[in-house]
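Q: What does the assembly look like in three dimensions?
Context provided by user:
Components: two
Sequences:
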Amino acid sequence: MMRLSLLLFSLAIFCPSLTLAQIEIRAPGQQTLPLAVVPFLPLEPGMPTEVAREVQEVLTGDLDLAGLFSFVAPAAFLSDARRLGLTSTEVDFAQWRMLGAEAVIKGGFSVKGNDLVLEARLYDVVSRRLLTGRRYLGKVEDARRMAHSFADQVMKSLTGEDGPFNTRIAFISNRTGHKELYLMDVDGHQPIRLTDHRSIVLNPDFSPVSKDVIFTSYKGGNTDLYRKEIYSGREAKISSRAGLNIAGRYRPDGREIALTLSHEGNSELYLIGTDGQMHKRLTDNWGIDVDPSWSTRSDEIAFVSDRQGNPQVFIQDILKGTVRRLTATGRYNATPAWSPKGDRIAFSRQEGGQFDLYTIRPDGSDERRLTFGPGSKEHPRWSPDGRFLVYSSDLGGKKAIYVMRADGTGSRRISPPGSDCSHPAWSGKW
Amino acid sequence: MVFVSFALHLAVVLIFVFGLLPQGRRELRPVYYIDLASMPVADPQAGRPDARPEPGPKAPAPAAVPRPEPPKPANKPEPKVEPKPIPKPEVKPPPTPTKPAPVTKPEPKAEAKPVPKAETKPAPKPAPKTETKPAESYQDTLSAIDKLRRDKEMAELKEKLAALAGTDGRGTDAPLGEMGGKGKDAGVGHYTWLENVIPKYWNYSPYLNERLDLEATIKIFFDRDGKLLDYQFIKKSGSDQFDQSLIRAIIGFSRDQTLPNPPKERSNFEVKFNLKDMKK
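A: Here is the predicted structure of the complete assembly.
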């Protein structure tokens, strides 16, 4: 035993390869992944290049919003960018490495009549392996959707979570002269009008389980709650009780709707079924209670109430009925939106005559201001993955829809100019 | 008056339209990092980089006067001598060091590039020898003048810098090297070098994972030539994205880098990666 200990001791001292030291690296050299998005090439000669341009634009726009990447300048691309080599043995990784890229997206397409085939691959340049690849079949007009879908795939392969780019955003616009409900892509393209109420439509919210949307409309002279099936176009009035039927929000499992009703006099929060049947009264207070937003576990609801004087955000436990105040600062806090991850609540606060967006933890700690500068920013809503926020802002005059990352960076306008756009809502997985 | 006002307004409009507006879309260019501060040596001494070196046997040794005579430019030890700041001691006595200076200066220039090639193919060496010799006197004079000028400029800059800092660097006796070093070479150790170089290969976005408390430890193994042989996770972070980014960093590092002035034996280091200095 003694000899063994002596031997081990000698080895530890004299064996040169046992030299050991610890180095601590406390931050990465670069906080983005250098990515090259190569223009897609025709799989057969003589194809129109319009598709490639569109795909490139969508991919770059989506991935830029993600904030994960820095893009290698296309002007620096070498010969591999002009060669349709989509397999890992055909891609010249050394070229991309020389350009500093850590990942590269390559793809090809073919068009026959109105049919489009799109093939896209994401490669890890350092380890020289395929991270994800997809082959899409569809119509030429689906090119943008295919590109959004592949951007989601890129996000999934790099972060482990699906991206939100192939989803939809509902919003209210007065471009026809009336406030109607519209639907558009996450980048603002392909807007379509869903309602023709020729009245005032407000407060849309997507069903988490089907392609339905609920909204409030003054169509019948009262503020009633409607549900619309987006693809069939069928529409039904869910709640038309006397007074207000506003700000309906689906429970995360899609089985109930929380909303504000005033048929009993004061504006209170209630739970109703998707068929409009009354399930439960949630609040009972002299103040006005509006804008409910569900927690991820459906056990709590954040809402706005002026029960303590000024509009503030409160949280109510659905089962116990207990209420606690969330926002402790600011004289006017409104439109709470609980993150799908459950860790933060976004809301707008009015200060100096203008609204700005904030987030706060559900326990009331770690409040962070997200927006600065001119323009009132209101109605924040989360993307289904909780990475982004959509909101409306009147920066520049008319209200428009903007998206940004959940930390307040990367803000960009997505709604087309020319009309007021407000009350956005982000769909779930489409 | 009206005409003058009109002309001025027109000029302003033209300036804004043609002069100040951005021309086309700005393209993002890659950023390249060049580290001029951390020259790794095997045996770093303590001190700070701009201080006066210890007056000892070091000065004559690096001077390496025999360099012109030895016809073999492929000498291994040469690279070690080149980075040593031989010119620095010469800054103080400007008139006298003119002789040693020209002798040492031209060589590194002429040999700096051939050296790596010479290691693999020693045969073509004689040619450069004959080429450099005839040009030596004229070239040496030119480079000596150039060096004197640069040294003077450098001394002036240092004086200005010292004045700005409120202290005169020439008055300190701190030796060259890195903090806590106890060796004899001017420069930094392998720890510091790795600490500076590995992050350049580590790209990690905070948007990959919201957690900033991730930490992983990887052991990296180098052979006698300083080449990275292998790596091994001692502790994973629990986030696949974080760990993958570290693997990419190590692979990228191993493709581009070898440990400079490698120790004589195999070596290994434990590298702990975390996000302590990263703020969202």
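Follow-up: Chain B touches chain A through 48 residues (CB under 8 Å).
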